[in-house]
Amino acid sequence: MSWTDDIHEELHEMEAQGLRRRLRTVDLLGGMRASVENKDCILFCTNNYLGLADHPHVLERSQKALFRYGASAQASRLVSGHLPIHQQLEEKTAAFKGSEACLAFPTGYMANLAAVSALVDEKDVILCDRLNHASLIDACRMSKAKFMVYEHLNLEDLKAQLEKTAKYRRRLVVTDGLFSMDGDLVPLLKLMELAHEYDALVMVDDAHGTGVLGPTGQGIIHHFPLKHFPAVVVGTYSKAIGSMGGFVCGSQLFIEYLLNKARTFIYTTGLPPSVCGASLGALEVMEQETSRVDKLWDNAKKIRVGLKALGYDIPRGAGPILPVMVGENEEALRMSKRLLEEGILIVAIRPPTVPKGTARLRLSVSAAHTDEDIVKLLDAFKKL
Ligand SMILES: Cc1ncc(COP(=O)(O)O)c(C=O)c1O
Predict the structure, then answer these.
(1) Is the dihedral of CA 242, 246, 248, 252 positive or negative?
(2) CA of residue 217 to ligand 1 center, whole Å
(3) Residue 52 CA to ligand 1 centre (angstroms)
(4) Which CATH number fits domain 20-44+290-383: 3.40.50.620, 3.40.50.720, 3.10.350.10, 3.90.1150.10?
């Protein structure tokens, strides 16, 4: 068989299992509204948790940066692409997250690849939660360290693995903060205490906690009464911050090391100025309008309570990510299609993004959802 026959067959097999993915054009109409396949709908599947992606201040900041510096950074950061706006963004992010220093990357994915590879090599071992985000799993695989997986949020299992790995130079525990597909939260205080007992380093991916956790959205570190900052905290500008890019927060020394070592920083163009401007604008709004975080949690609570009352299976958890568990891929696709007919966009999440047999509708909430949107959502689920 030729290679094209091979891939044709593979796609066909995916189709048969309800696993084939297709692009769909989503025409954003402002706020949480969009038009999909000529149907107006409310978005309940974005990561725009605080509704900042089209906030007037964010747009103005972005536009100013665009006209001041142009469309591109024009070079990688270590050549001539480190503009004053990158410096401002990194300083602002470090202050916001409460870390000594910060380095920004074109994506959160790249920030994760950079951080893990800088922390460990072939002399070391990584202990990784089974349900960590794909970018963390890839980061662990691409580093040269031995890669071990512990059961999801199971600190007993983690402890057993820490016991077994004393011979390695460094042990790195890698975890999502707020898990992206399950919406549950790592017990970071206990995990850090355990890691400390075994002299292991901790790296947290705070992609979904940034803007969401902590009294004013600074993230997971401010949610728990931690005594120490983890070795590394990674985050993204692409979710609650409503823009694009990733960042690594840590000590001045580590950030200095990272910019000398990280291939996903050294060999790529700096973030576009307009994107840095948007992120800075969003961080400023977050400082000014702290009630957005409260609104987000209120909305999430209303939806969680409403869906449970309708009898839907929502695993225990808190916050704006609500997985409506379905099981079979085809059924999840069918439900998503029916919801769109009712004017609600929520996509079916299927393997390999989630384990086999756990297909779900991943519902995500925003502070920008109105009470009316929530009523429409619950009505649509009632009709399913
Ligand atoms: C937990 C987590 N980490 C990292 C990323 C990657 O972030 P980005 O989209 O900025 O590459 C994502 C999102 O896709 C995520 O959910």
Answers:
(1) negative
(2) 17
(3) 17
(4) 3.90.1150.10
